[in-house]
Structures are given as C-alpha cells and as structure tokens.
Amino acid sequence: xxxxxxxxEERAAKAAADHLITATFRIRRFNPEIxxxxxxxxxxxxxxxxxxxxxxxxxxxxxxxxxxxxxxxxAHGICGSDAMRINGRNxxxxxxxxxxxSPSKPISVEAIKGLTVLKDxxxxxxxxxxxxxxxxxxxVTSGNExxxxxxQTAEDRERFDDTTKCILCAAxxxxxxxxxxxxxxxxxxxxxxxxxxxxxSRDEAAEQRLEILNDKDGVWRCRTTFNCTDxxxxxxxxxxxxxxxxxxxxxxxx
Length: 254
Description:
Residues 32-115 form the 2Fe-2S ferredoxin-type domain. The chain has helices at 8-18, 53-63, 126-134, 154-158, 177-181, 188-198, 206-213, 227-231, 238-251, and strands spanning 21-29, 39-47, 83-86, 89-92, 107-110, 117-119, 122-123.
C-alpha cells in the first residue's frame, strides 16, 4: 500500500507535533468572589518547549480554563505588563522560554510580590505608578518652548542612558524585600526614573527630585541586596543607579 503524500502544511504540523512535550504549570489562583485565600492549581498541557511562558498561559486560557486572568499587551518585552514570578523569580512571561525552566518539573507561576493581588496573576499597580509620578518623571526646563532642539553632547546623554531603558514592569520594585515589608518605600523603579532626569543636563529640577528622594521612604531605605538588578528584564544596573542618587544627595551640599 502506498504511503499518503502529505502537503507542506501537514508536514509542518507533524514536525511541530513531534517536538511537543507535556509540561505542568502550577499557577497560584485567587478570585475574591470565590475565596479569601489563594490556592495552587496544576495544568498539564502539550507545548513546544521553545515557546514562551506567555504562550502556555494563552493555551491554558483559550483551551482549558477561560477564567485564568493575567495581563499582557505587546507580548514582545516592551510594555512590561506581563511581569510575574516564574519558578520563584520575577520575569516577563513573554521573554521566558519554557525550555530554560527545567520543564520536566512543574513550572510555578504566581503574581509579583508586594502589591495587592486583585485576581490570579493581576496585582493593583496604583501604588507603584503613584511612586513613579511622585518623582516627577518628566523634563523640567524654564522659559517657553524652544524654537529649536535642546542640544546635548553624547557624553551627557551617556550619563543617564542606562536608566532610560525602564519599561515600568515593576519586576525590580516587587523583588525588593524592603518594598515587600513597607509599601511606602518609593522602590527601585521610581528611583531609576528619577535618576534618568536628575542626571539629564537639560533638566532643571534635579534638586527638587533629590529632596523628594531624601525622604524617609526614599533612597536611604535601600539595603543594596541587588535583587532589583537581578530581576530587571532590560538589564538596567538598578542598584548602581540608586547608589549614584545617594552619592548625589551626599555631595550636593559641598
């Protein structure tokens, strides 16, 4: 008997199926309308290990349990909306490959810490964004709008280049032990965004921002544990930026 000839799409589908594995995702669920307590729920799915955790969450929501709730937007590591704890570490679900997580064991997924969980993997981001707003994350200059651009040397731009990369995912802030225990602390992300303007040669409000961060809930709460630097999906040297703000506060009066 002759073997049926498969077309291009069928061959591609078979090749994809040959690479599937069965992975268990252990997700911490919380629905305040059902229970005041969170609980873990396991989902076993077939998936290509080269896919991302976000793809697995999509598969669970679309094919297994439509009540699973999480945030996502661009799905390409730019918006920062899908930050969550994956195997005990803060990561972006859209940038974390399943094959890098030892998928032969259950992969745990839960909401980031330090912020109130609203449902499943969604937390209340209002306190986080309030701290961000409090540090005046915008360029402050005097006079009317310029008739031409405000020039800046490459060296001056390089001074704060690292902290311009922040995508406000909250991975750094929600990895900070101080923030876990005291939600009044500004947190690493707010300080990083203040740093971006404090050291901008075109800005005129550095002194004002430094005074804001000199508060009891400001930079002096940092204990230099480097959790924030390790958690940043953009590779920002967060702890270094915080130390530079501390140094600016110490030296500004001399």
